[in-house]
Target: PARVG protein
Amino acid sequence: LLIDWINRTLQEEHIVVKSLEEDLYDGLVLHHLLEKLGSLKLDVDKIALTEKKQRQKLSVIMEAVAKCLQLEGSQLKWSVESILTKDLLSTLHLLVAIAQHFDPSLALPPNVQVETITIEVFLVPVFVTVDDGFDELFSRAPDKLEAVKKVFLQFVNQHVGKLGLSVKDIESQFSDGVILLILIGQLEGYFLNLRNFFLTPASTTEMV
Model:
């Protein structure tokens, strides 16, 4: 109902909303909505491309909404951060408040209930030092091994990628020593003479 209402209201602006979370978080639609419904002129750019600009834009919009609706800060069921982070419940509260104020004839269904589930994710850092050794990681936290590999891959590709190389598998692509030598050269800031080693070793001897 709210999506249809927004699209009808902003039809002349050729704005089409498909998702409340994805289409309202940056403030563009809310900006047009307030200007259309309340004849307000907000002193912000229509389009905010960076997160900093979006946060500034939403701050101005939230102040305008609170002023129009004559609401105190403690009465607000939304915030700049919750809208910016695409919190659907906050977005619904905000839109319902705007609709009831500017378009009271809109037939919003009564006694709507929203059940929310909050999921907290705890990130457990894994510290690998020379003293601890990888044996500790293998024996006590094998489930963290893939995460450690991913970090190493990102580190390696950040450096060898400058030469147009890409590492996807540590075990196979490091086994012949070529990537390792190139990585050392990149980290130490010098060019490895390709005559000093086999770039495409075909035997164990060449790898050694």
